[in-house]
Amino acid sequence: MAKTTRQTAIFGVQDWKRIYNTYREADLQSYDFETLRKGFIDYLRLYYPETFNDYTESSEFIAILDVIAFMGQSLAFRNDLNSRENFIDTAERRDSVVKLANLVGYTPRRNTNSSGYLKVLAVSTTETIVDFNRRNLSSVKIIWNDVTNQDWFEQFTIVMNAAMIDNQRFGQPGNGQEILGIQTDEYKLRSQAGYLPIVPFTSTVDGVRMPFEVVSATSLGKNYIYEPAPRADDEINVLYRNDKLGYGAANTGFFFHFKQGTLTNQDFVIEERIANRTVSLNVDGVNNDDVWLFELSQQASIVSEWSKVENLYAVGASPVVDGKLREVYAISSRVSDQITLTFGDGVFSSIPVGTFRTYVRSSNGLAYIINPEEMQNVVVPISYISRRGRIETITFTCVFC
Asked: What is the pTM of this model?
């Protein structure tokens, strides 16, 4: 058939009838090898009974039919798998379920990291400090509630006060409130400038070696303890909790907040104003809570912190704050717990332009229970600037309880 004739008559009535008559006896529900092979042979016997009649197993043409039947089965199997991934009831790949959930406006949760408190059992410092008895406490390990040392509390607080910022002393916290019936006060340690308020350590839990991080903790503006956004020039907070049951009680003493995972940062530059822009962060295992975004100046200093929201259009009732659009972003989950940041359209929220830095914490997503014996003698060293202007190190020995 000439090309022009085929193109003009390809959807003609006569062609459709010819195709219909050809395939009306075909078994279009054949998917497996045996059924497809039988369907091929039945089709040949019906339409070509005199042209082809060699149906012996060793025939070359039968071998070709076997190959085509095998390919048909493979294609049918793959098509069936792909079709199953398009429905929430039958999808098995996490990536497919996440995409189907995003399609209906639901944000699936990623892995949740473990967290808790480390109680400080002992403290020591490299700084030359003397107690009321003129004893030099440099490099002396002072144990909390040490019954063999009647001056332990005085020495403990002297060392802690030396590492705190200037306007805080033990008994004069920067913030404090009662949380779950326990008075919880916050003290800032005068950390060395330029370092994130993070102290990593490792521990074996349930037979698996895991990375953990001591983080800053606060309850400012909330009625629970949380980790504030990590800033390179911020100090780390240590908590003092008092359950009023004595110094030997499990919930009385100095505590650090810790989380499982590793904090990483990534910078990116947005040069054009594009509505609903997305930025993908190809970091595996990003947990569900620890994501922060900062806008940076040309000198790489923090200009502002953008707020994370569940839905960009949920702020539509009040999109303007202090004379400008809200600086917000939403997060969508991807395979392997990677994430994509989604920004606004310039109507309900601001369109980002400039240099940005994001912090995310990757956690392992395993299911386990941390037992106290699995976190004993955790060493937390923190460098600080003494009031003499020297770099010193205060070392805490902690346990999980």
From this structure: 0.77
